[in-house]
Amino acid sequence: MSETRSALIVDDERDIRELLVMTLSRMGVRCDTASNLGDARNQLQRNTYDLCLTDMRLPDGSGIDLVGEISQKYPETPVAMITAFGNVEAAVEALKAGAFDFVAKPVDLPVLRDLVRHALDLQQARKAGSDAVASRLYGESPAMTTLRQTIAKVARSQAPVYIAGESGVGKELVARTIHAEGARADAPFVPVNCGAIPSELMESEFFGHKKGSFTGAHADKPGLFQTAEGGTLFLDEVAELPLPMQVKLLRAIQEKSVRAVGANAEHPVDVRILSATHKDLAKLVAEGKFRQDLYYRINVIELAVPPLRERLEDLPGLSSKIMGRLAEAQGRSVPTLADDAVQALRDYPFPGNVRELENILERALALSDGDELTASDLHLPRNGGGSPDTHQAAAAAGVDPRSIDPRDTATSALPSYIEEIERAAIQHALQENRYNKTKTAQSLGITFRALRYKLKKLGID
């Protein structure tokens, strides 16, 4: 690290200040110190810092106030909070106030070094910032503009983010964008569908296991937390976690360490947690189906991804981008949408959201040879073609919603159910083989080409 990097350390305990100065100095970071809020404000007015570390309790006020001021007045300076051990409420409050991360007393030096590295890496990540976010999440509507702006802010933090939205809106894309625009971009992004892992395998999948710890454990195996070390763990469909696993996950997030099945000791992990579900998580908490303490821990920052029907002004441009990508893959020229096609799309409720729009356009391109797509080429279901719940379930399962006959949802449930089983088997095989597609295909007994087709068909990234 360059000697030009600088940090402000705010703590009223001299021993803590000296420890932090010594640690950061060895990392090539020049340090200034302050023992109270007043001193810190004076230092911030006179100097520009690449990082600020502040204690929670100061003689003349709360470190939370300093976090808020720095977030407002000096947004380019990441600020981390030093909290008392086990004070989760204070840590969460600091993250909501705009803190980049937190570290507990007594300070664990390896954890501190990781925090400092991530904070300083943000300077590089910010250079590509807003342009990269815009390229991933298209839309000129106010809802999408606000979403991109919020993503750009939370990407600079280490706070857990909960992404809420209906099936098919692009929650994983949001998670990947947060990861790609943050300080952990060069580390792994590990997505896991919590509903696809059998409950009896969950602990082993998340935390790993030691050889001989149970029947079939023929070798040590790292878990998803270890695989995501230094990066991001994305818990998709987090509402599907059974209550016993929620307890273990909460402990892992709070303690920043995991214990593999059959291990005698815990292993520290450095992972940022992003989570998502299409269900109403707050309602599940009220019903006792999801732990309130875990809900508050993963929902430090909530991002709501708008459904497509609430941003219809984005439809023409979004459709053009999707058709461009599909046409390139098919080696053909990009068709245009006729006026009646655009109007038909505007009139359709899109219960399956962006994923359903992609399905509709992909089918239209496959069945049409012309340079213009009309409303009849889209084959949209009449009157929305059934209930939103049915279509959302179909879109989530990778089923073309237009294949559902609203007069006979019992008939359509069978292929949807079969595809859900196929999806779960493929996702489990991918996780077992650490997302190596060649090995995954071999373990499933299918060709690599067949696996690629199924991944695309089922919407598995």
Automatic annotation (TrEMBL):
Ranges for domain Sigma-54 factor interaction: 137-366
Alphabetized UniProt keyword annotations: ATP-binding, DNA-binding, Nucleotide-binding, Phosphoprotein, Transcription, Transcription regulation
GO MF annotation list: ATP binding; sequence-specific DNA binding
Signal peptide: none
Gene Ontology biological process: phosphorelay signal transduction system; regulation of DNA-templated transcription
UniProt keyword annotation of Zinc-finger present: no
Pfam families found in the cross-reference section: AAA_lid_14, HTH_8, Response_reg, Sigma54_activat
SMART domains the record matches: AAA, REC
Domain of life of the native organism: Bacteria
Keyword DNA-binding in annotation: yes
Residues found modified as 4-aspartylphosphate: 55
Gene3D superfamilies reported in the protein's UniProt record: 1.10.8.60, 3.40.50.2300, Homeodomain-like (1.10.10.60), P-loop containing nucleotide triphosphate hydrolases (3.40.50.300)
Renumbered residue ranges of the record's region Disordered: 376-409
Bilayer-spanning residue ranges: none
All residue ranges annotated as the Response regulatory domain in the record: 6-120
PANTHER family for the chain: RESPONSE REGULATOR PROTEIN PILR, TRANSCRIPTIONAL REGULATORY PROTEIN
Protein name: Sigma-54-dependent Fis family transcriptional regulator
Organism: Marilutibacter spongiae
